[in-house]
## 1
Amino acid sequence: MSLEIINQNSNVISIKLNDIPLQYANALRRVCLNGIPILAIDTVNIIENSSVLADEGLAHRLALIPLSMPVSRFNEPLKCSCNNKSGCSNCRVILMMDSGSKDKTRTIMSNEIISENEDVKPVSNNIPIVELAVGQRLKIEAYARLGRGTTHAKWNSANISVLTHTNRKNEYILTVESTGTLSPIQLISSGINELSNRLHEFKENINKIEL
Amino acid sequence: MLIPIRCFTCGNLIADKFNEYLERVKSGDKPKIVLDEFGIKRYCCRRMLLTSVETIQQIIPFHEAIQRRHQEVQSELT
């Protein structure tokens, strides 16, 4: 088995998988697409929202903003040792926003989101969240948590993940495009870790049945 | 109401490019050229920018008017 990077840039990577059966290559492709836990805003406490957008519309827009994150720094909420419903600093990140408009109508951009952790922030500073007229105000407190794309599309780790056949047997090209949350190379390596964890878990469960 | 943050189909981030896209199209650039320069390859993402209509600008004036009236009432009271 071998793995070779064909080309790579800031958000797309193509790797050649040698001597890997189609089933395993496809499992890796699927894990890269929506199996890697990444951060996304999960709970939004709306303290004040006098904008034209409804609370749930606002929460939905916030949730879809890709957040940059350090790899394997956070625990998944259900697996965290804190056993706390609201979470601890190891399983959630608090993001705050307090925006108003004083003299003219303006667009609130993602750079106005203040994060508790400096590694976790919106990927781009120019994502429009809502437009506020004079006198309107937006004050929110949001919690970003780890999750998987199988639960909600906001946690999808990759935009596209494609497996292409080559002329040789058991040789495939895997192309992964990142959402910006993790770098493409981090996506592949955490995808491989996740896949091996799942296989180990599966094996343990099989052994339990035999006993 | 506003430009969707991500592409409906593939989940690619598009909202951060929309303002620049609008400015450049208004100044006379062809949408095709602008989209190509942003590196938006797939047609699912291209249609997001091409076909988006922002209706928030049609609602905001009512809120501006309410605010103006409110200020007028306030100044009359004092």
## 2
Amino acid sequence: MSEPLHTLTLAELSRRLAAKQVTSEEVTRAFVERTRTVEPKVGAFLHRDEADTMAQARASDQRRAAGKSLGPLDGIPIGIKDVIAVKGQPLTAASKILQKYISPYDATVIEKLNAAGAVRWGRLNLDEFAMGSSTENSAYQTTSNPWDLTRIPGGSSGGSAACVSAGEAPAALGSDTGGSIRQPASLCGIVGLKPTYGLVSRYGLAAFASSLDQIGPMTRTTEDAALLMQVLAGHDHRDSTSLKQAVPDYTAALHAPAKKWKLGVPRDFFGNGLDPEVRASIEAAIKFYQGQGCEIVDIKLPHAELGLPVYYIIATAEASSNLARYDGIRYTHRSTKAADAVDIYFKSRAEGFGPEVKRRIILGTYVLSSGYYDAYYLRAQKVRTLIRRDFENAFQQVDAILTPTAPTPAFKRGEKSDDPLAMYLSDIYTISVNLAGLPGMSIPCGFTKSNLPIGLQLIGRPFAEADLLAMGRMFETAHDFHSRRATL
Amino acid sequence: MEFEAVIGLEVHVQLKTRTKMFTRVAYHYGEQPNTLTNPVVLALPGVLPVMNAEAIRKSIKVGLMHGCKIAEVCKWDRKNYFYPDNPKNYQISQYDQPLCLGGGVEIELPGASRNIQGAHRIVQLTRIHLEEDVGKLTHYNNDSLVDYNRAGAPLIEIVSEPDMHNSDEVFAYLTALRTNLVAAGISDCDMEKGQLRCDANVSVRPKGETKLGTKVELKNLNSFSGVRNGVDFEIKRQIAAIQKGERISQETRRWDAQLGLTQSMRSKEQAHDYRYFPDPDLMPVRVTPEQIEKLRKELPELPFDKQRRYQKEWELPYTITSVICPDRELSEYFEAAVAACGNPKAVANYIANDLLRELAAAAPMGESPLTVSQSKITAATLGGLVKLVDSGAISKQIAKDVFLEMFQTGETAETVVDRKGLRTQSDTGALEKICAEIVAANPKPVAEYKAGKLTAINALKGQVMKQTKGQANPATVDEVLKKLLG
């Protein structure tokens, strides 16, 4: 009981709250104070409303005192990526264009967290509109990797990853379009789960690429991820892409007897850019599973290497349309220099969007243009189908696929910011999972000699989140990587 | 050289649904600006569209009514363009897979005169697709205001083939379309409220030529007469231009009803690239044959089919069917009254001659006539009136007054007749007495009659009817007078 509250897992805090050993007010204050202390170094938050957060904590304590606890998340502070709508809170998507915007409604996942009694804690930094892999594309601030403050936390959910890693919250919500939950989780040494497309409602998530976006949990452990998934998952009538799928008991799956999984390893796909220390950790993880009686199968994903170009056609095409609403007419930044309606569009968007967002809007506009549609967008959709089939074929043989989450550990701030293509390669292992709509999870699986976290990616069949969590748990129980803490 | 015009129409019709196309916000006309909105309508960050199934059902019905082929899948595309009335800066529409394909609209061309039925023909349709409406901009000197009440309302676009050749056909097409859609409860089709909007593609070519001329798209045709006048003007403009040796350029032109001419809005080069692509927020929805058959059973009889039936089964004249058949409420009223009395011609005459006149007269100055549902005379009581006349209980003359009384009070014919003692007198004794008095008091017509001028009896009849306040049975009066005059 001597360790500070901010170092505990969500599950442990939940047990102590249930046993009335602590109050939500104490827990929440611990995270608020921890944040005050380390935030100048980390820079994970774009906005904090401490008074509101403490009020939520006290309300939770009152519920519990009255015997009306709402479950394991009741009274637990959860950080929210600043791209998910919370009623009465800013939603900037780390963009100047939404600088003054306050959301008048709650995202479905927020309604679910509210119904579960969770305490909403702040707005977390990201790459502008979730476009990026380092959180350096935020229009407001850079976020540092808690393991090395000169390095980036990954992205786009870099604020969420850094916040959990630094002990500013026990868990956070991220969103993942091409790796934006898993890659920063990997780089910050935490667990990040991107659910199957359609399992978690996207209603209230400011869209980047609608056919790829998913909201998911970012936590210290698989057990914590299971607790959050239990609340987030489920059909939502407000999201037509949300599927009517029964939600399993994720925590029960974690504690079920260990299975001897068949695990696929696509070594051809690991490629040349893979850092030797990362490769070594992944190979060690593969050996570990083998040692547990799991069967390791060499598999091929022949079209996976086309994932990156396909992604940058489909995602940018959708983004060019999704971001058209930020036009300076209703609620976004409006240029004071505009002379007429068309000028409002040009100048407001020129002033409001950052360079990476502009680059992707231009690219997406181009690939959808008359005369280019068939050559780019339509062809990309066909290749997307081939990538999906690769995975379907692989899952005939195996229960899950193991890959590195990212080709390298966290890189230095500024190292790739002038080279978009090098930056895009950060997502080489994660992108095809979004294109295929599959669940993918990153778990801490090692550290480099210079003490930077390394992540292992587990990819599952559609709706196999429970299996992935169980596999992750199997690794976790035999290793301590997830319980190491960055010194700040 | 003689020219032929070729015209195709793109008609937008707002569907009468309780809520908008992709979110459950009410839609109706005439509310305070920006009150029929929510985060989805305003395209706030994070919102998603959810399809309105009733709008799909109504669109399929429109297709079935007009013989279209219904798509197996309802698929959605985004049409991307920036305009302040369009909150997302893309419109959810249907691009390569419209809900309805082909089909046609039966139209009735003007007859030789108003009372003579004109020829019927089918105008071919290309497609009908479903989409969402945009908001409404109002421009001032230095500002423009936008109202998003209409944004997101369900809208169908009905595209005809270039299958019309003059403004009469265009007018007949719009009239038939509106009649059909109103009858089926699809839309109220009020052009003033923007519930029906029409763009026309007009081209001309030398008569006999099969290749189409360069088309011009006409916009801002805000009324039925606007469509007629705009099309007429544009045909004349194009013919005159060709005769002067000019080339018609492919462009969009705006009809100015005040100036009575069309003006260029934008050329083909300035046309938008809409960058259509499948909307990733909406899954394609399967339309099953069972659903289609269920909707087919709900279709009302088309007004022209009804007209043919009335003319064939009941031998009603065009002057009456052309009044009753286009109006579903009126024809339902008519058929209910006929069911109550079994005399379609009499009922039709009361409706066409009396009821519609009184409904118009009862409306406040300058407002449109009351509808039959507002009439105090119901189909059942009208049937009752006809029955009384047919049974000889009252004369047709008396019935006119009874009708007016019923219209005012809502009483049955029986009640009015009994209250006012209007029943035909069948007491021949009393009638003989009156007739004898009239014969005695009018020697002049009596003498004329006896001298062989048989029509002189009518003057005497008139006197008797006046004396009996119209309650005497005219046939009996005739009989009695003839007997008295020997």
